[in-house]
Design goal:
By secondary structure, the chain is mostly helical. The chain folds into 2 domains: about 200 residues, Flavocytochrome C3, Chain A, domain 2; about 220 residues, no CATH class. The protein is built from 19 helices and no strands. The structure holds heme C (HEC) (4 copies).
């Protein structure tokens, strides 16, 4: 190996190690350090300024932004509203929602009592440490000159700049994991359905940081498509982890119902809409495979070598949901297939993290999302829409100016088709989707 190649190899290994270490870093609610409380971050000379500062590398008004605009600051408060009271009553919790760990674990940063410093209060909702990690070991050092982001991470700051670590963090509340989870029972009691797309959701959040030249120098560029791709893989992993985990089956004969398409059960019988797909016969419950569908477009472009493995696992997983009692060709049951799938996705995440997403690849992902694809259920149509807005921006900006307005109009129409979940008609959605493909095919610059 030449010296240059060897050097590149070492850099790659270091990056890989950093990525993997970041992904495996304990989530803020599982970390074994003391949480200090928002109050330690919020003074006006720290992160509580009313207006951004100009002469420092962070804005210093993060607390004000969070408190005023960010829904996470309201997360604890909503546990007092009528909807929460009803949920607690319907579930027979025997205590109010705002006192129940079941709710507090996601609606606030809720560490063990022995891990709370004197001024910590969980009533702040999802506060700074709920995302950035307990501050015990980095609070005093993180403002010292010369201390880098990597130093802070080594001291326990959660690595929110790492796409896989970020996706794991957001998903741990917005999809749920083994330690906090919204079951079908909790939804039946009145909790909203949950869905997330990491790139879109990080953009919806009122930003309390600014990606300027100084940020880029310290943390590197954000890559929306990478974040989207890694986010989809992480959500897909949450699904297969759920299917593999017998402890999360609360409702008897099925695996936990939230793993399935809600409208597979919740739709009027007069609305006949079965179509042959994924080898699924009529009258069976379909998985909520929205993230898996997105993942298939991603695998096609970023890791084509593993596409046949992906397709095999996808088919096995679907079959295993309804053929549990009969013998599968491979004699594997749902949990085993889900575990295998989880291993595959773990390796894929490492590849997605280390891949580059140049213009050609982004265009190919966009085409994989639209060409020959049909979305039959609300959850996958919703993901397809969010994918388009994450990926299309780049394609639209670089496409010929004549098609830009048409693509934008088409995406806006798709958004309208999604405005009411109960009235969603997949035929209309797919018709509009077909138009998008036509626009692209007419445009030589994109196709
Ligand atoms: C796994 C994490 C998790 C658990 C457990 C959880 N929630 Fe939530 N909850 C969320 C998230 C995330 C949202 C926001 C969903 C969205 O808007 O996409 C939410 C939204 C809500 C809303 C709607 C808020 C609004 O602004 O309209 C209510 C009410 C609510 N939860 C009450 C509860 C109650 C009561 C419990 C306990 C029985 C509970 N939640 C348990 C994560 C959780
Ligand atoms: C819902 C999760 C979440 C919460 C809650 C949250 N942050 Fe952040 N924060 C992020 C993300 C994501 C980023 C961007 C990635 C990065 O720079 O690490 C970020 C970035 C930052 C930065 C880095 C800015 C830079 O230029 O490097 C600071 C400082 C910060 N947050 C402070 C705070 C403070 C103070 C609070 C509490 C008032 C808070 N955050 C609450 C998720 C969160
Ligand atoms: C500790 C749990 C937790 C974590 C971690 C978390 N969230 Fe949330 N998030 C919530 C809850 C609970 C709500 C609902 C709050 C409410 O409605 O008042 C919410 C609301 C939101 C909303 C507003 C949704 C809406 O319908 O308006 C966005 C956007 C969001 N979160 C994005 C993120 C992102 C991005 C991350 C990761 C950087 C993240 N969240 C991490 C618990 C969490
Ligand atoms: C396997 C079929 C099935 C799936 C899949 C399913 N549900 Fe249900 N759901 C039911 C049944 C059965 C009930 C109980 C109906 C009753 O009590 O009349 C129910 C009840 C509910 C209720 C309470 C309705 C009421 O009348 O009070 C809500 C809300 C709900 N489900 C939401 C969801 C959401 C959200 C999803 C997807 C994440 C989902 N369900 C997936 C079968 C399903």
């Amino acid at each position: 190996m030449s010296t240059k190649l060897f050097r590149q190899f070492i850099v790659f290994c270091l990056y890989l190690t950093f990525s993997i270490t970041c992904y495996s870093q304990a989530l803020p609610h599982q970390a074994k350090a003391m949480s200090q409380g928002n109050i330690t971050c919020s003074s006006s000379t720290c992160h509580g300024s009313v207006t951004p500062w100009n002469n420092t590398n962070v804005l210093q008004n993060e607390y004000t932004t969070w408190k005023t605009y960010d829904k996470h600051s309201q997360a604890y408060k909503v546990l007092f509203n009528k909807q929460s009271q009803q949920i607690a009553k319907n579930l027979g919790l025997g205590q109010p929602a705002h006192e129940s760990a079941l709710c507090l674990n996601c609606h606030s940063h809720n560490p063990d009592p022995q891990l709370r410093a004197e001024r910590f209060s969980h009533t702040d909702g999802v506060g700074c440490e709920g995302c950035h990690g307990p501050a015990e070991k980095w609070i005093s050092s993180h403002t010292v000159k010369g201390v880098s982001h990597a130093d802070n991470v080594a001291n326990g700051l959660y690595p929110t700049t790492n796409p896989a670590a970020l996706a794991k963090l957001c998903n741990s509340c917005h999809v749920g994991d083994e330690s906090r989870f919204v079951t079908h029972r909790i939804m039946g009691a009145g909790h909203p359905r949950m869905s997330i797309e990491i790139n879109t959701f990080t953009k919806i959040e009122p930003p309390h940081y600014k990606v300027d030249s100084d940020y880029l120098a310290r943390k590197g560029a954000e890559q929306p498509v990478k974040l989207w791709a890694v986010g989809q893989a992480t959500t897909a992993k949450s699904l297969v982890d759920l299917l593999a985990d017998a402890k999360r089956n609360h409702d008897g004969i099925f695996p936990e119902l939230v793993a399935f398409d809600c409208h597979a059960c919740h739709h009027p019988m007069s609305n006949k809409r079965w179509t042959p797909r994924n080898g699924m016969p009529p009258g069976v419950i379909r998985l909520n495979d929205s993230s898996l569908l997105m993942l298939s477009a991603i695998v096609k472009v970023i890791d084509p070598m593993s596409l046949s493995q992906y397709n095999r696992l996808y088919e096995q997983l679907n079959r295993a949901t309804f053929q549990k009692s009969t013998k599968l060709e491979s004699t594997e049951d749902l949990q085993e297939t889900a575990k295998k799938f989880a291993k595959y996705i773990e390796q894929l995440i490492v590849k997605l993290q280390t891949s580059s997403y140049d213009e050609a690849k982004i265009r190919d992902i966009f085409l994989a999302l639209v060409q020959g694809q049909q979305y039959y259920d609300y959850a996958s149509a919703e993901q397809a829409y969010m994918a388009l807005t994450s990926v299309a921006n780049i394609v639209v900006t670089n496409g010929s100016s004549s098609i830009r307005p048409n693509i934008k109009a088409s995406i806006e129409q798709l958004r309208k088709e999604l405005s009411n979940e109960d009235k969603f008609q997949y035929q209309n959605f797919n018709k509009e989707y077909g138009k998008l493909v036509q626009i692209l095919q007419l445009n030589n610059g994109v196709k």
